[in-house]
Specification:
The protein is an all-alpha fold. It is about 65% helix and about 0% strand. The chain is built from 2 helices and no strands.
Length: about 70
C-alpha cells in the first residue's frame, strides 16, 4: 500500500520506483521514434497541447463531450 507510509518507503518500494524511471525513459524514446517514423510527431504535440484545454473544460464542469458527434 503506497499510501500507507508516504514518508517511509521500504527499500523494495524505492527499488521498484527507480526501475520504473529506467523503463519509462526507454518506452518514451521508443514511442518518440515511432512518432517520427510514422510522421505523427506534430499531431502528437498538438494533442498534448489540447489536453490543457480539455482539463480546463472538465474542471469548469462542461459535461458535453465535444467529440461525441
Amino acid at each position: 500500500d503506497w499510501n500507507k507510509n508516504l514518508n517511509e518507503l521500504t527499500d523494495a518500494q524505492l527499488q521498484y520506483c527507480s526501475n520504473d524511471v529506467i523503463y519509462l525513459h526507454k518506452i518514451r524514446d521508443a514511442l518518440h521514434k515511432m512518432l517520427v517514423r510514422e510522421n505523427r510527431l506534430e499531431l502528437y504535440k498538438n494533442c498534448i497541447q489540447f489536453l490543457k484545454t480539455r482539463i480546463k473544460l472538465d474542471q469548469q464542469g462542461f459535461t458535453e463531450d465535444i467529440f461525441s458527434h
